[in-house]
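Practice problem: predict the structure.
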Amino acid sequence: MARLKLIGSYCGALVLCAIALILAGCGDPTADKTAATVSDAVEVEPVASSEEGAALEEPVQDGLVYAFDNEGSSVDFEGYKVTGPHVGGFGTFSGTVTVPDGDLNRAQIALGIDMTTTYSDNPDLTTKLLSPDFFEVETYPSATFVSTRIDAWPDGSQFDVTGNLALHGVTKGVTFPASISLDGTTVTAEAEFTIDRSIWGITYKGVADDLIRDDVLIFFAIEAEAQGG
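Answer:
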């Protein structure tokens, strides 16, 4: 009997060790990523959308306008389940970067996304993302981001971009770091940051044995070209 208890204790210890190893291996995959700061939305001049609900008209601000769209730029995401990550993006989007007097600190970025063109690395997941469990694209076919301020870091290496993100019927202010540069007739901007999807009312948790994290990694690379003079 004593031997059976010893074996039982030993097996129990092995199980606990195995669980500890599994938990250690399932750490937060976004732990080393920058999380966007979320706040209340700030009132800005309205930016109109096209009939398709994707392309935005020029922001209401003086300055040279640089335009971009999904041809040559990308807006992507990565989400995380217990069983691993999934990547995706948006097939149709467009926007502008308006730069007064070449001053990026006074620039305004406007982006419109056709949410019905959401895609992922798995067809079944894509269908789920379009459904009421996630983006609910029949009700909310578009998403927009309009910056309200851009602040250069003291060392000039990056900028903090603040703006209103309207997604899934909810508008919140977000602030995230980005690399932005102006070179002749081209503005380039790149950023990588996480947001908590539940703040925008996207709360589907997944199935019991394959739960989905709330934090989603967003990364974009924009190349905008000058539109006239």
